[in-house]
């Protein structure tokens, strides 16, 4: 009896520490409404390709001559309407359980559609009221023990987000250096 009590106590302390560490890593979330960026762990519902050049013609009247001008613009990327289940907000809060956004990709289909769960980075175009994927930016993640999320190389969610924040999103001027 005297030996089992200290061993049991040590095991309880070790398990409690491990659960505390896992809870801390899984609860990473940041808020900054001044930055137009939303990062979340999402589960794919649908990724559907559409023609971005379908309605690309504008008719304008030249102010000097009064002539009618037909303006045509072309998008050189493939375009996709995406729908994802929001599993966990990481940066800013989407305040919804599903999100629809548009993704453009110059190289074909978006790489994030190959994963069940992924951190996605999107921004809101307030003028159009649409969310747009931050081009080529995503991190595949996996769920460990129904609570803890990690990257494919064992990175924490915080590490993955901070790598994007200090790298590509600072270069895109979303964050200051």
Give an overview in words.
The chain is of the alpha+beta class and 177 residues long. The protein has a domain of 120 residues. It contains 3 helices and 8 strands, in the order αββββββββαα. It has a 6-stranded antiparallel beta sheet with strand order 5-4-1-6-7-8. A two-stranded antiparallel ribbon has the order 2-3. Strand 7 and strand 8 form a beta hairpin. The protein starts with a helix and ends in a 6-residue tail after the last helix. About 4% of the residues have low confidence.
Quickly list its features.
Lipoprotein, 6-stranded antiparallel sheet, 177 residues, two-stranded antiparallel sheet, alpha+beta
Strand order in the sheet with the most strands = 5-4-1-6-7-8
Question: Distance between the terminal alpha carbons, to the nearest Å?
Answer: 59 Å
Number of helical regions: 3
Series of H and E elements: HEEEEEEEEHH
Rounded average pLDDT:
88
Largest sheet: 6 strands, antiparallel
Rg is 23 Å
Query: How much helix, percentage-wise, in residues?
Result: 10-25%
Structural class: alpha+beta
Work out the strand percent: 35-45%
Give the overall form.
Answer: elongated
């Amino acid at each position: 009896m005297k030996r089992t009590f200290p061993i049991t106590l040590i095991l309880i302390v070790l398990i409690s520490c491990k659960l505390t560490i896992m809870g801390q890593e899984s609860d990473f979330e940041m808020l900054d409404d001044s930055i137009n960026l939303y990062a979340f762990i999402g589960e794919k519902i649908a990724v559907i390709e559409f023609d971005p050049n379908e309605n690309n013609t504008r008719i304008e009247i030249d102010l000097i001559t009064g002539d009618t001008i037909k303006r045509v613009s072309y998008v050189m990327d493939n375009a996709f309407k995406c729908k994802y289940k929001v599993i966990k907000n990481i940066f800013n809060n989407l305040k919804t359980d599903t999100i629809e956004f548009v993704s453009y990709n110059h190289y074909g289909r978006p790489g994030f559609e190959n994963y069940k769960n992924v951190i996605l980075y999107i921004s809101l175009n307030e003028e159009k009221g649409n969310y747009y994927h931050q081009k080529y930016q995503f991190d595949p993640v996996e769920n460990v023990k129904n609570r803890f999320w990690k990257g494919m190389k064992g990175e924490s969610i915080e590490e993955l987000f901070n790598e994007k924040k200090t790298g590509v999103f600072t270069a895109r001027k979303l964050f200051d250096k």
